[in-house]
Amino acid sequence: MADELVLANDRDVRLVIAHWEDFYEPVVLDGITWEIERRGAPSKLEFTIVMDDILEFCEGNSVRLYYKGVGIFYGYIFQKKRDKENHIKIVAYDQLRYFKNKDTYV
Prior knowledge:
By secondary structure, the protein is mainly β. It is 4% helix and 57% strand. The longest helix has 4 residues, at 96-99.
């Protein structure tokens, strides 16, 4: 069972997307959902942003979430979906998602 924390779109909350050496603080719609599993599963961050002419990012870019200046989430974008109104729903997972990978390369 997951513990779920819903963060309101508040001035104490900062969301930052890094794309190469550029950092963006997009406009977030409908708040941010952060799900934390108690054991062995990566935490998940879901949010919807408004696409504009400046914002540029892709899957694999990092996402940071700060609350009152303290970093509470660091992860990577795994999925993005655009709707008709130019809103993009993003799903990001923390680094534990990579550690759980079972692929082997020789």
